[in-house]
Amino acid sequence: MGAATTVYRWSGMLTCWVSVSKKVLPARRLKSPPLVTKLGRPKRQILASRLEDGNPPSKCSAIWGISAETMIDVLSADAIEALLREEIVARVAYVDQRGRPCIVPITYAYDGKALYGYSMLGSKIEGMSSRSDVCIEIDRIRNSADWWSIVVRGTFEQLSGNAAVEAVERISDRLRTVACVDGAPDAAAQTYVAREGGPGIAYRIRVTERHGRYSAASR
Question: Could you give the CA distance from residue 33 to residue 97 in angstroms, rounded to a whole number?
């Protein structure tokens, strides 16, 4: 049997930990409380701190790296639009020609309706060309309790002619602008195709669906 310790119980009414008794318990990990809805914030969930034997909530938060006051909510349409326009790196998920799911990073430019990319021919282009429905994730992460994340579904298409030229110019301008603002090295202002020196393929992913969430620790 373990030594005497204060036992904390999750109170769904108060959305907090409260001390209810003292008793002798064997050393074991208590189950974490369920996600609960904070009163007055019906759309936001509070991530409950996990409790180990003898640890008050504040110590448990430090152990597990989360806070009872971390809120997760849905991003507005304007916030999603802003994130799409401000970021340049995304991850695109597709199914390759063998039927296997794949996910790879890409750089992109966004015009409000579609994402534009430029890549050398390879399994990514071949897979998206054979199965045009793709999924894209774009994140902005400051730490584990402060992040934005959006998921975009869309349709891939290769571009040719003037459309391809315009797409390459669009993404090249975007990379140069971001590299200049960030003080990045010259290579960051060039597309991957330009750095590798091979033939490139311009493409467009038309956005058909998008949604996102964010997490923010209360101040």
Answer: 44
In terms of CATH, what superfamily is 77-213?
A: Electron Transport, Fmn-binding Protein; Chain A (2.30.110.10)
Instruction: Compute the mean pLDDT over every residue in the chain, rounded to the nearest whole number.
Output: 75
Domain boundaries, the chain: 4-68, 77-213
Confidence (pLDDT) at 69: 64
pLDDT, tens digit, for every residue of 121-141?
999 999 999 999 999 999 999
Amino acid at site 91: R
Residues 6+ apart with CB under 8 A from 52: 29, 30, 60, 63
Instruction: Give the contacts of 201 (CB within 8 A, at least 6 positions apart).
Output: 118, 119, 120, 121, 125, 158
Measure Cα distances from 120 to 64, 115, 179 in Å.
42, 17, 21
Contact 202, 158 (CB under 8 A): yes
Strand partners, 5: 23
Distance (Å, rounded) from C-alpha 160 to C-alpha 141?
Answer: 35
pTM: 0.66
